[in-house]
């Protein structure tokens, strides 16, 4: 009848438990911008009562954070419904975006060139000249604002393998990601050092590629499958206990590779792959790291939606924060509500993303934290932008959880970017 996930829509009983956790509903107050509203629109589109274009007006503004799944009492698989809707209209995706997703993020030469270009842009102080010239004013607001919060890009220093001083507790294959390894390579480096410190042997598989998350969430299903197959085949070459990453969004994609190959011969291999995939916080929480250094700061935590809602990792980051000496933790109101980053949502839907972010930062202002902790590169950049918009830059840093744990262990950089 349709390629929409029609049968799945009947699991929704329209109870409204999802409303308080949906960022677009909270900021707009519109039923069409709520999970139950979107599910109803998908059902009507599948039945031919509305057009796909009408359905997409609402679906396009969904962040895909999947907080509604954790709140739902009837276990509605909103992610499957959302993905089917995006796939149904993906032909309308702009050509430039499709080329970027299919060729840009999957090409290591392009990513390496981008990394070196950003390094030169910053090292030669071209960024300051560009900002003073006013050239950025000709760009879309999203690009202009994100350029201003781009972190210092450093050359990659991580090795292809790290060995602990004693017999390894685990052998870990590390997933570096694409954007993460371009803009936040130092976090990957610290991640691997922490795993080594905790007694793990760490290997980096050079054949690995983009996880496919951005492609999948943009309806490029076949491209996502190709990338998943390439990663599965690459990591199958190494016997390991875990496949570890420090990227909430990528990790969520990795643990759902089996869904891409449902009813296909690749499904068993995909399940074997996903069974080994864990966020770094899960493993670090088990390793009894020597956190001997005090971090005397007031800290709040903005979880990655996909880490919490898809990977269902919630307690481990908190356990790590609780182990850090001197740290004062203050919970952020509505911390389980998306920050508005959502892949490239904050570029495509800048105004909506800023409404969500400004609501988030109003909560952060009441805490006046020294540090906002994140667990995903997109969230990291979004919260840095939020700090800037809220005029909190002089007081508040934004760091990845790994950076804070590394500081407590006395390794890596002491000054956060």
From TrEMBL:
Q: Name one Pfam family in it.
A: Fer4_8
Q: How is the cofactor bound?
A: Binds 2 [4Fe-4S] clusters.
Give the EC number.
1.1.99.14
- Which SUPFAM superfamilies does UniProt cross-reference here? 4Fe-4S ferredoxins (SSF54862)
Q: Which transformation does this protein catalyse, written as a reaction?
A: (R)-lactate + A = pyruvate + AH2; glycolate + A = glyoxylate + AH2
Q: Does the keyword DNA-binding apply?
A: no
| Transmembrane segments annotated in the record for this chain | none
| UniProt superkingdom | Bacteria
> Where in this chain does the record put each 4Fe-4S ferredoxin-type domain?
2-32, 51-82
Q: Which cofactor does it need?
A: [4Fe-4S] cluster
**Which InterPro entries would you find in this protein's record?**
4Fe4S_Fe-S-bd, 4Fe4S_Fe_S_CS, Cys_rich_dom, Glc_ox_4Fe-4S, Helical_ferredxn
Going by the UniProt record, its keywords in alphabetical order are: 4Fe-4S, Electron transport, Iron, Iron-sulfur, Metal-binding, Repeat, Transport
User: Is Transport given among the entry's keywords?
Assistant: yes
User: What job does the chain carry out?
Assistant: Component of a complex that catalyzes the oxidation of glycolate to glyoxylate.
Q: What is this protein called?
A: Glycolate oxidase iron-sulfur subunit
Q: Which organism is it from?
A: Priestia iocasae
